[in-house]
Amino acid sequence: MADEAPFQFLHNEVLQYIYKSAENGETDNGRNIAKLENMGFRVGQGLMERLTKDTARFKDELDIMKFVCKDFWTCVFKKQIDNLRTNHQGIYVLQDNKFRLLSQLSAGKQYLEQAPKYLAFTCGLVRGALSNLGVKSIVTAEVSVMPACKFQIMIQKM
Amino acid sequence: MADEAPFQFLHNEVLQYIYKSAENGETDNGRNIAKLENMGFRVGQGLMERLTKDTARFKDELDIMKFVCKDFWTCVFKKQIDNLRTNHQGIYVLQDNKFRLLSQLSAGKQYLEQAPKYLAFTCGLVRGALSNLGVKSIVTAEVSVMPACKFQIMIQKM
Question: How far apart are CA A104 and CA A116, in angstroms?
């Protein structure tokens, strides 16, 4: 029914809290984004740890990505990623056609400015989840048409 | 499987963030508790709003409490309240025998000091949920035997 709602509402509170408590105002945006990303990172690590407790070892990187798109995404957002693409050279694009954490943002044009702060936590979440499985990555996100959203993962080879 | 985990991990991050970002240290504990309580209040309001969208009107106060114990608690914590008591004069005690947000706290004796910060958000959550239904209350909590926990609700008559 509203299974993803508690997480969504809490995420929204966190966002507001971080932005309100920042004293340097606008210029601090980068720092706020980083805080949200870090918070997501730790949540992602912990969640992946718990989700894979009884899971068989993954075959390869693609197998890990499929797990993120299905099991991990469903655990957090109560739906799967709608589309997964890769160039087979360490870049993966995960598309969510109805990204829950954007649903409180109106579909007007101002979302273009606001979107990054609604996506930062989840970028960290994915990076943390992968990190827990020994995969180092850089994760960025962009809104295509609201509320669709693409997360790009660049694997960092050690 | 781990349906309550995203919320639980995020709650834990919020806790750590608020306590880390408080600069006045120990003496600020009351203010941190208040911040958590307020955050819970807003989440509770929003959640109750969403949960009761298509619900029939409640008969009375007790009917509201039962909804909090069953539907609301299940939405957030993936389990129901184990025991509801009332003195029929505006005091209700909700007991959760395995309160999720305490599960990351060890069962040692130091929990007695730590417990209030793990309970503050949920006190606010209940207060906010009731407030959304027009019921003004004061909510306090205490740990009996870890991880069992009692929430006491005192209805404030207008």
Answer: 14
ipTM computed for the complex: 0.89
Taking only the tens place, the pLDDT of each residue in B68-93 is 999 999 999 999 999 999 999 999 99
Q: Alpha-carbon distance B90 to B73, whole Å? A: 20
**Confidence band (pLDDT; 50, 70, 90) for A24?**
low
In which residue are the tokens 């040692």 written?
B108
Q: Say if the Cβ atoms of A5 and B50 lie within 8 Å.
A: yes
| Residue A74 contacts residue A129 (beta carbons within 8 Å) | no
B10 close contact with A: CB closer than 8 A: yes
Residues 37-66 of A with CB under 8 A from B: 39, 42-43, 46-47, 50-51
**What's the CATH fold of domain B5-155?**
Muramoyl-pentapeptide Carboxypeptidase; domain 2 (3.30.1380)
A9 closest CB neighbour out of B2, B9, B47:
B47
Rounded CA gap, A70 and A81, in Å? 7
Neighbours of B112 (CB within 10 A): 11
Whether the pLDDT of residue B135 is over 70: the answer is yes
Are A94 and A84 in contact, with CB atoms under 8 Å apart? yes
Q: What are the tens digits of pLDDT across the range B39-48? A: 999 999 999 9
- A13 and B47 within 8 Å at the Cβ level: the answer is no
What does A112-155 look like in DSSP terms, one character per residue?
Answer: HHHHHHHHHHHHHHHHHHHHHTT--EEEEEEESSTT-EEEEEEE
